[in-house]
Amino acid sequence: MIHRLQLQGIINESFRSCHFPFPCFSHYLPTTTRVSFSSFSCGKVTEMEQVKVDSDMLVGDPVLLQTKIDAIRLAGPNNLQVIADFDATLTKFWVNGARGHSSHGLLQQGNPDFDAKRQALYDYYHPLEFSPDIEIEEKTKLMLEWWGKTHALLVEGGLTYESIKQSVANGNIAFREGVSELFEFLEERDIPVLIFSAGLADIIEEVLRQKLHRTFNNLRIVSNRMVFDDDGNLVSFKGKLIHSLNKNEHALDMAAPVDEQFGDTDAPTNDNGSVKERTNVLLLGDHLGDLGMSKGVNYENRISVGFLNHNIENSLSCYQEAFDVVFLNDAPMWGVTNLVSQMCSS
Ligand SMILES: [Mg+2]
């Protein structure tokens, strides 16, 4: 079932908010509806935050957005593709009152020593990933190092596919409400969805399997792919390593379809050509860096949607400048589905 929100109404509502200059956030919020603000320490979430505004959907330039929607609608669904980040974009940021797991973070290797070793790598490299004092070239080397060491520990520590299943079952991870309906809407119109992640493809597939309880022919996952032996033991990784800083380089070359044979890396990928010919893009992300996911696509029109999940007070102006649409407060996916239905209406 598709929830058909009145987009124009939402845009108008957001437009009122946008008359206020950013980044003066206090002007933006209705004074009586501000619920709570978290305390943050260097981007680290210490408590759940919630911001009450007229709408959880904000549009910086409603006229530009409408122009893009009209252009995409005129070109037709055959020219549209969706490129989506996975963690905290398709999945919720908060799950059961706690920070939701990422596809990487939920993994329990079944070997506490190796779980601790991977955690130690996280503790060392994660601050470097966001350090403003490290040049991008050096940082890219560090990310390659981090991902490489982590993958090596997964092989060395004896990861099995069974432990992935168990980790997903035990993980604190959930899709945003309406994700399944969005995929279904897109599948019915043969619009491909590229899920682009620096995490682990096999885990993402297992999350899709366990949480959505169905498959979609239009989904493809571009992420790090594991290779298991006949007994379900991880033996290696396949393809180029995708880390947080090179998510823009491998989009179509690494893509493999997700279907009933999840994890079948020999499955044909001959849809890449048709995806490359789709010149209109709906991009979904939760990080400014996710905007780079559409690099390599020679698009004519791109509508970018950003989910601003935390550090809202400091980040809202940047997100509003960078994304055509911003969703706050761990919003469900209904607003995106509505956008897509506008793009596909005849
Ligand atoms: Mg993300």
From TrEMBL:
Instruction: Give the keywords, sorted.
Output: Hydrolase, Magnesium, Metal-binding, Nucleotide metabolism, Nucleotide-binding
Q: Which domain of life is it from?
A: Eukaryota
Gene3D superfamilies named among the record's database cross-references: HAD superfamily/HAD-like, Pyrimidine 5'-nucleotidase (UMPH-1), N-terminal domain
List, in alphabetical order, the GO biological process terms annotated in this UniProt record.
nucleotide metabolic process
Please tell me the species this chain comes from.
Clitoria ternatea (Butterfly pea)
Gene Ontology MF terms:
5'-nucleotidase activity; magnesium ion binding; nucleotide binding
State if NADP is listed as a keyword.
Answer: no
The family note in this entry says: Belongs to the pyrimidine 5'-nucleotidase family.
One GO cellular component term: cytoplasm
Q: What is this protein called?
A: 5'-nucleotidase
Spell out the reaction equation it catalyses.
a ribonucleoside 5'-phosphate + H2O = a ribonucleoside + phosphate
